[in-house]
Amino acid sequence: xxxxxxxxxxxxxxxxxxxxxxxxxxxxxxxxxxxxxxxxxxxxxxxxxxxxxxxxxxxxxxxxxxxxxxxxxxxxxxxxxxxx
Length: 84
Hints:
Elements (H helix, E strand, L loop, with lengths): L19 H64 L1
């Protein structure tokens, strides 16, 4: 016997011929997919934090390079004055 909706369409139902192993397998696969997605999200979060730290280090390195250039220029001026 097939169930129908008010519109005359066939209603969805779970047939008793579907083995419980198929249902359990689908549930386990869904759970595994959720676990995988959660671990991927955690890795992404970790990488984002690391990227922010790297950006900060790049900025610090650029500042240090500019200071080193300024110190080198000052040292050259001092050496030029001493050489006179």
